[in-house]
Amino acid sequence: MRLHEYQAKEVFAEAGIPVPDAELARTVEEAVAAAEEIGYPVAIKAQVHVGGRGKAGGIELVENETEAREAADRILGMDLKGFHVDRVLVEDAVNFVNEVYVGVTMDRGVGRPVAMVSSRGGVNIEEVAEEDPDAIAREHIDPAFGMHDFQARKAVYDAGLDRDVAGDVASILTTLYDLWEERDGADAEINPLMVTADDEVIAADAVFNIDGDALFRQPDLAELEDEAAEDDLEAKANEYGFDYVRLDGNVGIIGNGAGLVMTTLDLVDYYGGAPANFLDIGGGAKAERVANALDMVFSDENVDAVVFNIFGGITRGDEVANGINSALEQFDDIPKPVIVRLAGTKAEEGMEILNTDLVQVEATLEDAVQAAVAAAEEVDS
Ligand code: GDP
Ligand code: MN
To answer: Running DSSP on this structure, what letter comes out for residue 347?
Structure first.
């Protein structure tokens, strides 16, 4: 579960991490009033659950009332990477000389939490990790002991931070780790942690994602959940009881079983396409689940073609084929091409049943994926 920046900052501030003066606003008038109260310059920041708001035009620094009004008017109501902006954080603009990154997450490869520090804050940290992994200092933490002071100091030292701010950054990192642990964090991140000319450090951005399975023991955080801000499709997937992850591409993928779906994702990528989603309809999928899965991928406007990869075990090919037929028969016009590969239990019967006026049937997974990638490309061009 994600918190908005302003919510995360409240949690961080309560734990003693310095944050700028700020006020939340839902209207232009509220934003201007907040700016006047805080004093110019202020940053006006869209509160939506996406990163990279700066680059996408969701953050503006303003110097006076006219600019504040214009910026608030433009940002409130805007569509930011598919999310509707209905509130902004109006925040005292920080005059910084450096931007630092600090974060805590679970390192699943190592099986331990990891605390990270980088002197290359302010930019997309995933890009830094890819270009120059050594620019991020990492300390793995033994959760039985928590983060030792020497570990925080070592991470800050390894990141090459200025001596004058090292103590403050180390203490913020420790606080962030403690919060992550006590509040069942999934990811906690401050990027940028701004350093001012007088060596003050202040959290200019805040990310705090909470482990959804732990919300029952974090009732005050659970209350902050903003269902309206949830991705519509993810909400739908929850309702249908699917394992679903939205991705950036345009090839919709439906399969039964996580490994099978992952393989399909890899193959789409291998054949030069880009997966639009991970969608596992689970074992023993009946016709209704199949229809619901199609509803999901069809309502994703990024999807240009759909590939079904079904391996029958408990799931029977004939059931799935009936599900696909009945779901598609409801359309006068099939909105996107659907390519199906069936294998395993009752696959042959299934392929007989599939209505080839509605779907394209392929005998192998490779053929099905290639056909879907080609169909998606065709729609795209
Ligand atoms: P994100 O793009 O969604 O991660 O939003 P951030 O809050 O990290 O802001 C992106 C960038 O906007 C920062 O790295 C800064 O360069 C700039 N920015 C944000 N807040 C302030 C501020 O208070 N003062 C100044 N000068 N720049 C800011
Ligand atoms: Mn940021």
So the answer is: H
